[in-house]
Amino acid sequence: MRNLRNIRYVHWSSHSQRRITAVAWENDLTFLCSFGPSEENALIELVRINPASKYYPISARQQTTDCILETCLVLAGGDIVVVREEPLAGEDRIEIVGSVDAGITAAKWSPDEEILAITTKANTMVFMSRSFEGITDVTMTSEDLKASNHVSVGWGKKETQFKGKGAKALRDPTMPEKIDEGILSPNDDSRTSISWRGDGAFLAVSTIEGGSRRLIRIYSREGVLDSVSEPVDGLEGALSWRPAGNLIAGIQRLEDHVDVVFFERNGLRHGQFSLRLTPEQLHLAGQHITLSWNSNSTVLAVVMSDCTQLWTMGNYHWYLKQEIRNCSSMLPSIPLLWHPEKALRVMTTGSDSSNTMDYVFTTARGSATPPQDHGVVAVIDGKTIKVTPLQTANVPPPMALHEFVVNTNVIDVAINWNATLIAVLHQLGISMFEWQGVAASGSGPVLTARFTFEKDQTSAQTCQQISFSENNEVLVLQQSEKGSVVRRYGFDDDTGRMEEKLSPDSPSLTISTLSSFSNGIASKAFVQDVSGDLHNLVFGGQSFAHCKFPTQLPWVEMVPHGDDYVAFGMSSNGQLYANSRVLIKNCTSFLVTPSHLIFTTTSHLLKFVHITTVQDLEVPPDDPEIDERCRSIERGARLVTAMPTSASLVLQMPRGNLETIYPRAMVVAGIRALIEQKNYKKAFSNCRTQRVDMNILYDHAPDQLLSNVALFIDQVKKITYIDLFLSSLREEDVTQTMYKETRVVPDLAKDVPIKNTANEAPIHSLSLAKSSKINLICDAFLSILSTRTSTNLQNIITANVCKSPPALDDGLLVVAQLMNEDESMADKAVEHICFLADVNRLYENALGLYRLDLALLVAQQSQKDPREYLPFMQSLQSMTELRRRFTIDDYLSRNAKALTHLHDLDAFTELQAYIQKHTLYQQALSLYRYKPVQHKTLTALYASYLESKSQFKEAALAYESLANYTKATSCYLSSGPSQWRETLYSALSQTPPLSGSALTDLATSLYDALIESKDYFAAATIQLDYLSSIEGAAKTFCKGYFFADALHLVALKHQPKILESVIDPGLGEALASSTELLAECKGQLLAQVPRIRELRAKALADPLAFYEGERGGDGDIPDDISVAASSKLSTKGSLFTRYTGKGSQGTAGTGVSRATSKNRKREERKRARGKKGSVYEEEYLVASVGRLVERVESVREEVGRLVVGLVRRSMWERARAIQGSLAEVIGLCQACVPEVFGAKEIAQTEQAAEGEVYRPLGGDAVLQESIDAAGKRKEPPHVAAFERLSLLGT
């Protein structure tokens, strides 16, 4: 689908009186040419054609040159001459480095310029090295014909084709009807030709063998004969080996036509195509055709006397893409020369001039702006234009939907903005075709006008490109000796004929490309000069100065964006530009739509970029699995055209066939646009066709859909389609997940690109966020469908069933209503609802509605045996209403509802059994709250149940409310010592009352339980009130550090002797216990805080050794305590790559044994122990310090009461000592908390942000959790300031 377009034409004429004899490329634009020798003058001149030309005259014998390679001259007389521009010391400027006495017939350097192959007049092949030393000599003899024994099986020949039953059945199909004998062409010039394969491993030599046959020999690089060609009648001397290596091209001249024939390396024929020659060209006397492939094997040049044709191949069809007028008196040896590096740069050379041309492959496509995006593509093939609107008919090349022919071979073709006109630029003029049926597969384009160039204009100027401008005028870019000229042609309003029009002065510069773009109503033309600047050709139009490129770009597209324009261009090395900004550097093709820049890359990806301002253009990453803007394509695929209306894109594969795809980015963008236009019918159709989640129809514009449900139903119409939409609803917001908007718009306030939220409706406010999206939509549809029962009954059923949870009862009520109105519709409705939901569940819901007729109708739609449900239905029919409802609810396990029916039936005895069976005590108590007798009975049952379930506290409360104090005492006692007051109350309230011994035993057991739970104040109360032990109560107060209560008790009971016997010893015990505790805390702090400091210093100094558990330099820590190093982890990465997963993106099971769970448990035990020297030691010590601080804070109040007690008993020194110890420990805690619990600087990797989180397993996961916990900031424990007792001094 690609054409060749001329973007550069340079003509050079020699001012010398001598004739050019040979040329050769030197670098990018510079070439060398030789003048002479001739019969009159044996002098050879070498000329470098560039602005600073230099001439090197060389004296030589009177001989003709065959070719020039760099500074090496190979003369037909046999001399090989080297010309050195800057010779070194001891070297001659001109030196004859070799000579062949017999004379030279052809010479060719290998592509790597390491070997020079020479054929001599003595029928020998000479291989020379770069230093002109002989490698080998090979003699070409008739014995070479035996090198290949060809057997043709006739593939592709007419004799092997099927011709019907019995046709030539006895003939061997492998034997052709006519066998070529290798007869010489009468036009053969007897020349010898050499052509190397692109990799330099083989070369082909075409010579005449024995004066009767043209033979092609294939030699290896070492000079070994590999094969010879099969006999071909009329084979001439033209020879060119395709650089790709698969074909060797030659010319076969027959009586009525000339073919380009191809050979394989083994010498066998491999296809051909015929040249499209006029009768005059076919019978032109002395015409010797030559062939030449370009460097990347895409174009084959066929050079004739009057013109040169450029051919390309696609889908096994050969297209004639360009025809070039030749210079006068073309060089017989090198008439055409392709550039070795610039694949589409070619030079044709005559005796006194040369033409240099640059071509690019382009696609002549129509506009991609909706609604004119018909996908029109025009392909040039000689005089024929193949046109196909790919949106209407996806015809694969080389076929086309329409073909039309012009008078001469086509140069360029252009399509206007709405594809109604096609302008064709050919050798003699312009032809205009009108196409009215572009949107349908009707008639093709019709010729409406033509313009013929004048003969002198044709010879003096070279036409390059054609394009449309405003008012359907045609612009033609021409090159002349004066420079670039843009001519304007259009229809005359008076005559209706196509004429040249006067146009404003075009820019006085060298124009490279002439292009146009569509703004939706017309074509806008512009040009690019050789420096990359763009110029508007519309008189008075907006300037494109800001759209300049840093250099000339072969491919240029422009698209309007708001009030401005953005130009996109691609260089020959794959750099894609937006104005002067480089977007990517590996682009292979691109095109532009009003919404997207679409391009392919060398990574075989198709990418979309939203059109916005140049600085905000965002190129998506290479992630086709996540980003809708990126998609994988076949290797080597190129863009042909895009059709946003149908959300399709056409690609051409390397072999030439077309592939139409529907990229997700275009599809979703199209659906969004259709939703905004309220075109729900087409939006739904696109979702259904392209398998896009239907939820986007609501999620993209929620308020709009809810307010246009009637419009949605009227547009979609089809009942099944509405059902499909309702059944596809999910709670997920697909615009935030799978179809997240990737377009950005600039925030004018902050000048920061933000996500486009223009279509986010307020339906997602806080008040509605809690409601179900599915139910919201279904309710909206039901409100509209309720008035359309006759036409949309099925949709009403679907809307009810698709709710979350399904509203089966509502759907069944619709069926029940229809049973009374229209039985036939009821049958259809029940059939549909049974299709949507589980019929067994529907049967239960129908029973739950207490509609036996409805349940029977649903049961008949199920697979149930009537013997299963009919007896049950008959038994229900014979019951009373309340009993029937109880039976149905009990059958459906709706026990709470069945209980209400028993309550209504006043069957209290049955109800008691029912609540005990189904544990319905709370519901029963609620029903009988105003009936004291029944409520009391039910409370007793519930208390017994709670006691059986060990819920003693609630059971005791129930028994106490029933005045059953014996049971209440037992349950309170079982509930624990915290209920000691309730227990003693119930015991004292029993009738008959408890005996004294029983009450003492109860109080003693409660006292022991309270002592065990360390509730000393309550235990002392029991000792005093129930056991009558003043001394025991005082001791208990002292155990709990309640010295004030103990002293008060002594004074109250007038027992001063207890002061010395109980209080003072209690103070001493408390002092000893507190002193020991504070000393232990002080020692722990002094040991653990320095150790934490040491561990952190080691981790910072050598993290790898610290976490891997390697032996340090001092060797203090044994090497058997490390638990971090694990054989399940790779040791190839660093610490951070190991534990963050960077560089180890393995699966969850990589390197993990079956003992993963066991390893984790063992590692968790190691972590809990925090063994010294392990990686868990620091974490363990930090937690230990935190627990110590909390413990010190918890004993602060007790120590304070102890200090006051000691002072009251005049134990001043002891009080000062314990207060000092507490103050010291609190001071240590206050000093260490900031250090131990302060924030640490942890090296953070970027893996969390990228989402590539490595998940370790087993023991490694425990270590990872420990490292993560260490990196998090911990909440430091609070340590309050210590207030000393002022009486004790400082």
Automatic annotation (TrEMBL):
Domain ELP1 N-terminal second beta-propeller: 379-640
A Pfam family recorded for this sequence: Beta-prop_ELP1_1st
GO terms, molecular function: tRNA binding
Keywords: Cytoplasm, Nucleus, tRNA processing
One Gene Ontology cellular component: elongator holoenzyme complex
SUPFAM superfamilies according to UniProt: DPP6 N-terminal domain-like
UniProt name for this protein: Elongator complex protein 1
Species this chain originates from: Hyphodiscus hymeniophilus
Lineage: Eukaryota, Fungi, Dikarya, Ascomycota, Pezizomycotina
